[in-house]
Amino acid sequence: MASRTASKGPFWLEWSAGAIGCLCVSVAMLSSCSKPPTQPGPATLPLGTVLRDRTFHSIALNADVMYRVIEPTSFKPGERICVGYLLHGNGSGFREWSTYSSIGELAVDNYVLVMPEGHSTYFMNSATKADDRYEDFVTRDLIADAEHDLPQPIGRSSRFIAGNSMGGFAAMVLAFKHPDLYAFAGALSPPVDFPKRAFTLRRISQSLGVRRIFGPEGSATRSSNDPFLLARAANPDSVPFLFVSVGDQESLREPVERFNRALTARSIPHIFLLGRGGHNWQQWNGNLPMLLESLETTMSAAQK
Fold first, then answer.
1. Which residues lie below 8 Å from residue 147, measured CB to CB, with a gap of 6+?
2. Any idea what the Cα angle at residue 245 is, between residues 257 and 26, rounded to 5°?
3. Mind listing the domains of the chain with CATH numbers?
4. Phi, psi (5° rounding) for residue 73?
5. Whole-prediction pTM
6. Could you give the count of Cα atoms lying within 13 Å of 167 in the half-sphere of its Cβ?
7. pLDDT per position as a tens digit, 74-106
8. How far apart are CA 279 and CA 254, in angstroms?
9. Taking CA 210 as the corner, what is the angle to CA 207 and CA 213, rounded to the nearest 5 degrees?
10. Are strands 184-188 and 111-116 parallel, antiparallel or unpaired?
């Protein structure tokens, strides 16, 4: 194992062995809920891209839902189109990625970026609310609607999923449960321990939320959506390439670092990033260039 200190950005870069070599690094976070700035600014779009908000009827949710899309004003002929699904944090909404990050720059390179609304559901199928089937919404209905009018068919090698906080948790779980859909999955500060959190009066609102989504402690629903158990059972050769980050000032640092060790133990190809900062977009934007570099490398390799 070799390591070196990075000159910029994340302050530690660690290389570790794995099935195809896992690159490990280091980043930041404070709580399990995304806390964007109180005064959102307008989305900034590069030239040659367009932002649209679309509405369609989701069978899984039994409701009309809105999602945001950033895409090229015109696709480059003869070049591959890639589609990415960006999941927001708890307490935020589908506008979060377009408002607080520069992710729209990807659209210049023939990427379509899809940002769905997930409320506080962790983008999972609820164990207690019949119409909260957000896993089915993201992996079935949303893909079908977002990709149906593209000029070329989209397969696994041209599709990725990523998220921050709550959305990062979902990106990891959906990557393990639906490896046939995504070539890459990225998670910025994911609360990977969420399904295991015990009921506590001190955090009764969070505890009730965990129970609403995953059912009671020890339930099959909790186990089937536990990133640690999913990693333990996964086939390393079929899992999408993973990017996972957390900050050195976050309470989530310990479980995310433990998750990184679990991925390494299973030889699941991934990058782990630990850097300075808290659970916020200042930290996540600092990690975005490395996430995008890893994404583009993975998507290029998937085409070969």
1. 83, 112, 153, 154
2. 70
3. 46-302 (3.40.50.1820)
4. -65, -30
5. 0.87
6. 28
7. 999 999 999 999 999 999 999 999 999 999 999
8. 14
9. 150
10. unpaired
